[in-house]
Amino acid sequence: MLYNSLYRADDQLLINTHAYGTPAANAPVMHLNRTDDQGPASTYLTGFNRIWTAAQCRDK
Fold this sequence. Notes:
This protein has 60 residues and is an alpha+beta fold. 25% of the residues lie in helices and 32% in strands. A three-stranded antiparallel sheet has the order 1-2-3, with helices on one face. The termini are far apart.
């Protein structure tokens, strides 16, 4: 996988995986429902929050 696109609405997640050499229209999408703090949806959200927290603004 190159990366994932995450789309979130409340506790629903759509994870669009981007595989090398695969057109976006053919890439799989997973629909996850966050039901607790240890499931797959929470794993993706925790990773996203780590990146978001560490992000820095770039000067122009």
